[in-house]
Task: structure prediction
Amino acid sequence: MELLKKRIIEDGVVKPGKVLKVDSFLNHQMDVALFQEMAREWKRRFADADINKIMTIEASGIGIAAVVAAEFGLPVVFAKKAHSINLDGSVYTSKIHSYTHQRDYDVIVSKKYIGKTDRVLIIDDFLANGCAMDGLVEICEQAGAEVVGIGIAIEKGFQQGGAELRARGLRVDSLAIIESMDDQTGEISFR
Ligand code: 5GP
Result:
């Protein structure tokens, strides 16, 4: 999506460790008009898909997913990062490894908000190693819900998450795929 790529070039900052900072429009301050354009783009791309629920993970996916949900006219549920898991069987749970924070954390979704009749479009801001997406897909599998697609704003194509998800047969639709980025020059190239 050209508008998003242009914005990444203009306002994205490449940090050491292959991390792209997009705090000025996506991860801290949010450009909701841009989110609306992104949502329209996913609506076009998933026009053939019979989706009845949007899903994301807290925190940075929520803003984008909420705008996507409004565009599709569907509910959105976000996986919560859990400090302690209630073992009364009321939630689906998955463990996610965060490379950016170098630790594991549990996420939960209540059984009330996801189930066998759901056809889910998962939305997130970044796809890198794919751990966050693996966790959400696992929760959908536990619930018997179908993952119809995964919509990602920015995929880091030089990390393996996207390739692995696609190899599993999942439909991953990223609006901008970064081929390479250089923390010395700040240069970013797209696939
Ligand atoms: P993954 O689980 O695919 O390795 O990473 C996905 C999550 O890590 C995203 O939801 C995002 O929060 C964070 N992340 C990974 N790489 C980057 C990056 O380059 N920039 C930012 N801002 N977040 C990232």
Q: What stands out?
A: Residues 19-22, 27, 60, 99-100, 124-132, 156, 161 surround guanosine-5'-monophosphate (CB under 6 Å). The first strand starts at residue 13 and ends at 15.
